[in-house]
Each structure stands twice: as structure tokens, then as C-alpha cells.
Design goal:
alpha/beta, two-stranded parallel sheet, 15 helices, 10% strand
């Protein structure tokens, strides 16, 4: 006896019913730039919808592999995209809960014999039904230390990624060059990762837009002179060590708001809404970035 299947499937209707477009639109609003990344997320969403359509029409095929690798420098939006990816997977029915558990090596690897397996299994238990995001995943593997327990965590992760892939999606993240070395050293991981997405650095204009977006979300703004000074700041800061894209921008704005608060307090004046919400050039010029230039 054959099962009855619908004659056809409206892919756009599937997209609407799952409210996936809502998540894609949110990603556009909350992240400046990253055009190639957003395009890849749309492509993955389309692939998952088509996979569901195939299943509903009785077409055979293996379940789509969903484990991913996000590579790029710090502050390029990897964690935010992972959050939205978890939402998409949940709305399309590929994970039960759609939550994101973000960890590093320290959350998985113990410091003595018998400590690693319980730690790793506890993290996996929390992540089941959702997405496990492992930042700086290459630190799991330390071949220079033969007594390192990272290999034990790797073996547990690989087993779960293979045997419980219908209940857990793993995203490995980190610097591209180090992740490439990690995959060469750990072919088990490489063979299980279906989607590799590279996150580019932001350019100067995008970083300024990110700053204005961050300020607007907290009812702050630059005055005209401050905006010009912040453009100078970005150009200088990008050439200095340990620059972390949007993360460095956020830190710079935190320090600027601190200086603004002290400036207003020291003035002794009655402050207006406008004064409380406006960052001046002086709040930015005091940065050590300008002193080092």
C-alpha cells in the first residue's frame, strides 16, 4: 500500500508558515553589512525548506547535515548569527527548543583525570534540542601537551554529533587560519561539518554605522563634531593591536559614555535631555588611541 502525498508544495507558504522571514529580517536590522554571511544563511534556510518539501512528497534522501563552522575575527557577529540560526532551525522543526548554549574549552575540558567527560556531557545535556556554539574551538586540541584532556572532549563531541544529529546542531567558531589547522588535525570534525561560513571584517563606514546603531539603542547620539572624530578614531584603532571589530566599537562607546558622565557631573550645571543623550568630540578625543597616533 502506498502512502498518499500532496501533489505539490508551496515553498513560499512554508517560509511564511514557519515565520523564517521574520528572523532573516531581524538579522538584517541588527547586523550592519555582512552581506555574504546573510546570503549564506538565506541559502541554508532555503535548503532546509526544500528538504522539508521533499520529505512531505515522499522523496527519499538523508536528513540534511546541519553542523557548521563560523570563521572570522572577533566582533564580526558570529554569536548573533548563531542565535538567529538556532531560531530558524527551531521554526522549521529541525531542533526541539531552539536555544543556544555558548561555551569555550574551559566549559568542556577538565584539569584532571575523570573530570572532562562529566563536564562535556553536562554541556551537551544543556544543549540538546538546540545549538551548541563552541567559540575558539581549536583550543580543544593541544597536540603539544600529551597529557591534555581536550582529546577526550573531542571524542565525546564527535560521537554525539554523529549519533544525535537529529537533536543537536554544533557550530564551531574561531579565527579562520586556526580553524583550518584544527580541521586538518581533526578530520572527524571536518567530515561532520556541512556548512562553512566566513565572517569578513567590517570596513570603516560599517563600523561607524554600528556605533550609531548601538548608541541609538540606548538613547545616545554623536553630535556632528563627535561623529567626525569617531571616524578618525575608527581609522586609527583598526591599525592597532587587538582590534575586535564591533566589540572594540562597543568598548569605545562605553568609555565615551563614562567620560560624558564625568564631564556633565563636573560642570555642576542642570542637565537637559539633550545634554544627557549627546556625546561630544571631547568625550572621544580623550581616548588613548589619539595619544598613540
Amino acid at each position: 500500500m502506498t502512502m498518499d502525498h500532496p501533489a505539490g508544495v508551496d515553498l513560499q507558504a512554508l517560509l511564511r508558515e514557519a515565520n523564517v522571514q521574520e528572523v532573516l529580517d531581524q538579522l538584517d536590522r541588527e547586523l550592519i553589512g555582512l552581506v555574504p554571511v546573510k546570503q549564506r544563511i538565506r541559502e541554508i534556510a532555503a535548503y532546509l525548506i526544500v528538504s522539508k518539501a521533499r520529505a512531505s512528497l515522499g522523496l527519499t534522501g538523508a536528513a540534511p547535515s546541519l553542523h557548521m563552522s563560523f570563521t572570522g575575527n572577533p566582533g564580526t557577529g558570529k554569536t548573533t548569527v548563531a542565535l538567529r540560526m538556532a531560531e530558524i532551525l527551531h521554526r522549521l522543526g529541525y531542533v526541539r527548543k531552539g536555544h543556544l548554549v555558548s561555551v569555550t574549552r574551559d566549559d568542556l575540558v577538565g584539569q584532571y583525570i575523570g573530570h572532562t567527560a562529566p563536564k562535556t556531557k553536562e554541556v551537551l545535556k544543556r544543549a540538546m534540542g538546540g545549538v551548541l556554539f563552541i567559540d575558539e574551538a581549536y583550543y580543544l586540541y593541544r597536540p603539544e601537551n600529551e597529557r591534555d584532556y581536550g582529546q577526550e572532549a573531542i571524542e565525546i563531541l564527535l560521537q554525539v554529533m554523529e549519533n544525535q544529529r537529529d537533536d543537536l546542531v554544533v557550530i564551531l567558531a574561531g579565527y579562520k587560519d586556526r580553524m583550518d589547522t584544527f580541521f586538518r588535525s581533526n578530520p572527524g570534525f571536518s567530515s561532520r561539518i556541512a556548512h562553512h561560513i566566513d565572517f569578513p571584517d567590517y570596513d570603516d563606514d560599517e563600523l561607524v554605522q554600528i556605533a550609531e546603531l548601538m548608541l541609538g539603542q540606548q538613547d545616545y547620539r554623536f553630535d556632528d563634531e563627535a561623529l567626525a572624530v569617531f571616524r578618525e578614531y575608527v581609522a586609527l584603532r583598526r591599525r592597532q593591536p587587538h582590534f575586535a571589530n564591533a566589540r572594540s566599537v562597543r568598548n569605545a562607546l562605553d568609555r565615551a559614555r563614562l567620560r560624558q558622565a564625568n564631564r556633565l557631573f563636573a560642570s555642576g550645571a542642570t542637565v537637559t535631555r539633550e545634554m544627557l543623550s549627546t556625546l561630544s568630540a571631547a568625550d572621544l578625543r580623550a581616548s588613548r588611541v589619539f595619544n598613540a597616533a
